[in-house]
Amino acid sequence: MSSDDDDINFLGFPSDPVGTDMVANKKRKLGEDGGKEDESKYKIFSKPGYKRMYPDNCTNGEFPVYVEGLKQDDKIGNKNPLLLSKIFKKVKGIHESRRLKANKIMLVFKQASAANDFLKHSCLEENSMKAYIPASSVEAIGVVRYIPKETSNKDLFHKLTADAEIITVRRFMKKEQDELVPLTTISVTFVGTVLPQYIYLDNWRYKVFKYVPPLMQCYKCLKFNHSAKICRSEQVCSKCNGKHNYKECTSEIVKCSNCQGEHFAISKLCPIKIEKQEIHKNKNNSNKTYASLLVKNNDFPSLPQRSQNVPIVQSNKIKNKPSGQSLPIIVNDSIENIVNNSKLIDAVVKTLIALGNSNQIKTSAHIREELLKNLSSS
Ligand SMILES: [Zn+2]
Ligand SMILES: [Zn+2]
Ligand SMILES: [Zn+2]
To answer: What is the mean pLDDT of residues 30-55?
Structure first.
């Protein structure tokens, strides 16, 4: 898979929280005691020959493609944009280009086929670049519980069925005394940006939950939301807060570098970590779709007479739409609630005015961002 997935995680500490191990599984081999059989049984299984592409029948919308240098430290985002334009001069259908970070830029296409074609354009190889479609534009990851541990990922891949095509099956693993032990929870990657509601194993129906990637903690500086790979801070010991790796620690003191408390900096009990986890969870539940934006209760303190049982938006019926296009279906009896929410309406109006006054072309991601900004400032 591509490197945008790599940002998900943090691993390598004695007390990996449950959940991070799914990705751990992807990156490191099973414990030495896990025999050959287990190793293949719980290896991530993906559809053979799968390549991330936009469905060709999508004609209007926005189709972003990420571009990076082939080498980790190629800083494509710091190159002169005019020079980059020159490189991409022969590429058809680029609608807009954007710098995302030092090592990543994004080209936006208006046609799915143009975006797909670009992935194999000769200019990439000639300039030591790679291009890929961001996972979140074409795939959705769900979590399914109570799946028998004995069944291998490969068998699951072949036996599971859903309303959306299945691309990958992963088993969540838990680390117990240096050994990875399978859990009954799996994650399933589907084609399309909206999760199917259910998945079937034989004819047994299971509910599909949204997968929220674990909070990332840097194992170099022990701060949050970035990986050690890109960390420019000094190494900090997760045990004593000294300037060394925890493996070299000789100190008797246990001191968290984030809150100065008497626990390891990676402890699940760290109040700073708990706080970050909470923010992370909320962010993940709110920034994905317009649908979830409307559903999120605490963003809208003044929703009047809303029945807890009536979901405002049911978006899980829409399938295979690229992100930014999926419009939620609004359940009739909740329209009133939305209309009565002056905060929401004001924010929408403000956003529309700003868009109307702007002569820049905005993508749906832009618009969403703007709306969220206006919502939180209102
Ligand atoms: Zn760091
Ligand atoms: Zn130490
Ligand atoms: Zn702490």
So the answer is: 76
